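seq/struct pair 1
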Amino acid sequence: MRGICLLLGFAVLLPFGEALAIEPDAPEKLISADDAIGIQARRLVEKRKGPAADADKHRLAALTSFYADRESRPIWIARGVLSLGAKATIGEIRRADDWGLKASAFQLRRTNVSSSASTQELAAAEIALSLAVLKYAHHARGGRIIEPSKQLTTYIDRKPQLLAPSVILGEIAEADDPGAYLQDLNPQHPQFLALRKALLKQRGVNEENGIRPVRLPSSGPQLSLGKRHPDVAILRQILDAPVEPDREGASQDPEVFDATVDEAVKDFQRQAGLYVDGIVGRNTRSHFSGAGPASVSEAMLLANMEQWRWMPRDLGEFYVTANIPEFHVRVVKNAQVVHDERMIVGKTDKQTPVFSDTMETVVFHPFWGVPNSIKVNEILPSLAHGGRVLERHNLRLQYRGRPVNPQNIDWSRTDIRKFHVYQPPGGSNVLGEVKFLFPNRHQVYMHDTPEKHLFKNKERTFSHGCMRVRDPLRLAKAVLHHDRGWTMDKINSTVDRGPQNNNITLKNKVPVHVTYFTAVADEDGNVQAFRDIYGHEKRIRLALAGRWNEIRKGRDHLAPVKRRRIVRQQYNDPISDLFKQAFGF
């Protein structure tokens, strides 16, 4: 262990002296040469604070343990030079931008060693590359935003799909193609790959040959005849407008907008159907930059790709997925959509959370148990002032399993959270004919609704957080046919029986993925964009840009509902309006 700590010390504090060497008689084994630097390196790392520093400490500790188990044998050095696998790995890390990451985030400077590199340089390259691999894996698996529910909002209940550093180093050390191994650390879901294709397409990258066409920056000064700017040299490359020599044969300045560039720009404007004036302003510049539609920006694609890094690697052979900004729920079997329907999601202040769980039960003619938030904020004020909200909406009140007359209770001093408030099955039940349970800490589920007219709206943010499905019986058929072979006739007969024991426990739990993708791409890289109704995309974009202090996290929707103090005053019982807003009554 002594040697390993110093190995890490050399990688962190190379300027302070030699900490690692390669034994002349054992060129494949790394050894230590300076105890003090190893100790100093650990202290240096320990002084840093924050998630990034914690990740660095974790990676350093993992390297220590990994190389100790290998008796300090290197991964990347073979016969005194960097191996072919090392070079392939370095090349792949440098192409990190093609996977929605940032190649500039990985320190590869010390891996630039020549064939005559010293043992100290090779040792530095070994450690630098191993650390870069671990950091790449951390980012590829979603670790740039390590705790979305804390750093962004509690409504995003996702976690990066991280692998243990020891697993990564062990697997890449044994990989036949380390570069391909790194690629596979990124999500391999078809939709992630489609978004990646859209990203490359927008950047003008040809994935087959890696050619990146010259692009004029989408923003910059107005360019016209006689002006000088570095962007003019880019224009020359795009328009194939060479620099004409002067009368003496001397080359002119390629950054000067001369007559050759002026004429080439006018030809471009004619072909593009633009106003022909030879001036490269905002409109002409946008055509040169090759920017995609204004509604689909690179930042949008990157934010959506980042969310895929938090998704389970295996979504399931059969699963239900609900995309909030799209207002759609789908059933997927063997990667094919077998059911697709509209849905209603939570209001902006009562959002539908983003999470994955498993469906366990389908309930026909369900009871509705009123959650504490509605009890405290919407029912209690009415009861405390003599309102008749319970009978108006066919709600029942129980305490310890026994019916209670609400008129016999002083609600100004009573905690309504201790009571069970529910609505029995029936035509006015807010859950309609069926609900789908996938127990979760957010206490949300999918269900029917009697208010079908709401599905005509383009944006459907009307609920308290649960997802209402337009044709829930078809959804029930899709789930129960897969689980039990039920037909639509069987579904209808179960509904027609009325409110009996209609809790159908699934033989095989069904994965449910509630997502928030504002960009969905097809296999050709064409993107359909949806409005960022809850602001989650914006939060992710800010986080990826390092602008953490600008993120508005909003309220903690998982915090316990507090007891509400009731002040006696004139009261007109607005509960009916509240229910109309919540349930369409």
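seq/struct pair 2
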Amino acid sequence: MKENYFIESRKLVLEHFNLEPIVRDLENNFENSDAISLRSMSESQKWYQMLLNNAGDICANFIAPRAAAVDEKGASFQNGEVQWATETQENMHTLGKAGYMGGTLPRKYGGLNLPITVNNIIVEMVSQADASLMNLFGLQDIAVTVSKFGNETQKDRILPKFCHGEVSGSMSLTEPDAGSDLQAVGLRAIEKDGKWYLDGVKRFITNGCGEVSLVLARSEKDTKGGRGLSMFLYEREDHMIIRRIEDKLGIHGSPTCELQFNMAPAELVGKRKFGLIKYVMSLMDGARLAVSAQALGIAQAAFDEAVKYANQREQFGKAIVELPAVYQMLKHMQAEIETTRMLMYRTGLAVDFLDMYERQAEHGKDVRAEAKAATAVASFLTPLTKFTATEMSNKVAYDALQIHGGCGYMKDFPVERLYRDARITNIYEGTTQLQVVAAISGVLSGMFKSEMDAALAAPMSELTHEHQRISAWLASALELIDTVKSCKDREFVDYVSNYLVEIASLLYRSALYLGYAEKNPSCRDVLKFFMNDVEVRFAGLKIRVQTLQQSVAESGVASLKKDFVFPKN
């Protein structure tokens, strides 16, 4: 019997969240008369189901069996050129032939015109099959940036190539001295005779060998900071040299390159000086979501491997899945995966709404208030989701390997690869620590409360007790947040931010999953298991913050560091 990665918990997005306003906007209120547009919400849902079911089949039965070979071979580098593993080439060709490139791009360029929420299900399934492939498949996000901000000539030239699988792309942002701090980007963009040229080095560029790149460069002379940066479209030619590819711990099928631009010709995307403050920020929502989906796919794969092994492996006369210590680990992994999936889909919906308002504004509709509100929600939920999904994925992969015992440490079992692949997810596209910095303002400003109130507003008939428990946690959490806000020392607030963001993640996931479990009785055991875990974790986090606050009140913020001895060079 063939497997399919379009599992029941992934189907929830088409049933639980209301995608109709997004789909109506994408489909011109179902009024298009051409042969390829969708005519109704019902037709849209059936088409999405068909697309996702077919993608789930390809991922499970074509891509996943090749993942071990991709990991072993990796990408190769010879004579200045990068070559994907043969299996990676076959995977990309198959996805392109099946029509899955350009998922969120408009149909006029050959795209599928999908909501981000729906497309992210495909990204998650691809990641479950081969996490390294997602880095190539997911880089279609640069085409989305061109679609949003490029001129018509750029769109007409570039976007059909992505949709037809003729090119792959890269985001050239990071440099040797500009990693997380992109304001320090120094690669120069030089204007001569009305044309632009790029000069400098980029490092840690995923698929830097791609035919099309978006490059963040300093276009304004003698400037520092984000205001001097612009975004450029670069199409591969001889003035860019690939210096080398990195020898990495994981995701071997995805080449990570160091690039040298030697007055390479490029085109300005959008307006000068908006490269970081607008275009990269817009791109980040999609990038954070894509990595969250990647992390979730890896976690699902690791969990599935752990369940399979636990059922097959016998110790002390019975399968180890029957041992309470193992069963408890599996239940914890399941609860973390399912509640994080709910969070990710909710975040995808938030980004979909933001994109919808941006499209409507382009067509002259006054949606400034709606767009501002949607921006605030997306700016809070995307870092919260990446924080949650990537840390969860690392823990699930760790526990899945533990369940395998010594076998898990061997390359004979997929969990060893999954463990290595998971590790990068909470580093690239912004480390976990940077996600905390990005999310904490939403916790402190009231966005967290607003989202919790909305999630808890769903009517309850079967889970009223659980609703009351979560409401009580929220009241306690808001009281804690208020006490932290009352502290005038910013260093203390920064110090406890990770605890507050974790609390926000735990409570928000509980509230979101509550509404889903109310509608789906089969999910109530997962909810109750998760809530029991949350109660303990929330209590511990709250005590940590209160203890630290008392210490600071008595001895000042310096007390946070007094027990640490830092070695001197």
